[in-house]
Amino acid sequence: MLQTIYLGTYTRRESKGIYSIALDTEKGTLTDLTLCAEEKSPTYLARSKKEAVYSVTEVDGNGGAAAYTPDFTLLNTATEEGAPLCYVAVDETRQLLYGANYHKGEVNVYKILEDGSIEATDSIYHDEPVGSHENQDKPHVHYTDLTPDQRLAVCDLGTDRVYTYDISEDGKLTEVAVYVAEDGTGPRHLVFHPNNQYAYLVGELDSSLTVLRYNETDGSFEKIQKVPTIPADFTDFNSGAAVRISNNGRFVYSSNRGHNSIAVFEVTDEGAGLTFVQSISTEGDFPRDFDLDPTNDYLVCANQNSDNLTLYKRDEATGKLTVLEKDIYAPECVCVLFKK
Description:
Blueprint (H helix, E strand, L loop, with lengths): L1 E8 L7 E8 L4 E10 L6 E3 L5 E7 L2 E7 L5 E8 L5 E5 L4 E6 L4 E7 L5 E8 L15 E6 L5 E5 L4 E7 L5 E8 L6 E6 L5 E6 L4 E8 L4 E9 L10 E7 L5 E7 L3 E8 L4 E9 L5 E6 L5 E6 L4 E7 L6 E9 L3 E6 L2
Antiparallel strand pairs: 1-2, 1-28, 2-3, 4-5, 5-6, 6-7, 8-9, 9-10, 10-11, 12-13, 13-14, 14-15, 16-17, 17-18, 18-19, 20-21, 21-22, 22-23, 24-25, 25-26, 26-27
């Protein structure tokens, strides 16, 4: 069986835009890298149930989001002055698209129109105090995606906060809760447990995973546990990046840029705890993103600086990863999205 994977990239060196590649689940191989759309640094991608594809975009110095048909015909772009986004996510219920603007410290909301194109509806800037890390010079929104009860969770690396917003049907945001992490954590991405009661937050700046209890009554988060994602004796540069959870909620995976590894944790206490299982090399440099295939039998990791994908076989019982392929060319790849 062939599974399609979409790849988002930077276009600073060799890449031309959005690519696809196929995972052959019978042979355990990656094949047929194809350029889908020429686009300037489409560093993050999202896909709707109608199979439209949305990407980060930059047009004539303005930043925002681009909308594509399933065959990658450009529908339109919605941009404004300033840097491009770094994350996009689809809200199927309200037909909205959410964007995180790292450089501007801004949350963006777009309406998805009947034909799949988009138009801006709201934007919010954060102005809370920032952390003490040198990378926390100002607010840096890095993640904007839905909670299990259809609120919007927003990670801000600069302010060390995770914000929760209620969302109106026309895409207006109202803040309802704020979780404040330890100084210098740098919240980047999070993922929810299938039981909807817990989330796992990547700290980019302190190479950590924090277990958060989520309260659907008021949208608040509460810290339960915090664990490192790199060995204690590793003292060179590292920054946490992506986080994923297995379909059954038994294992959490997190990538490390610098240590160039994926850390594997077993989920305990019905979601409330994490126990270290494995740290495995990504066989490349700067693993910004990875994804599990729909069956969870495989994991594909993108190494941004070394222009290669690494394919792993995943053991369902132990959660451990085994390298199958490590030299699959994918230029400047920073987003891995299975066509699910």
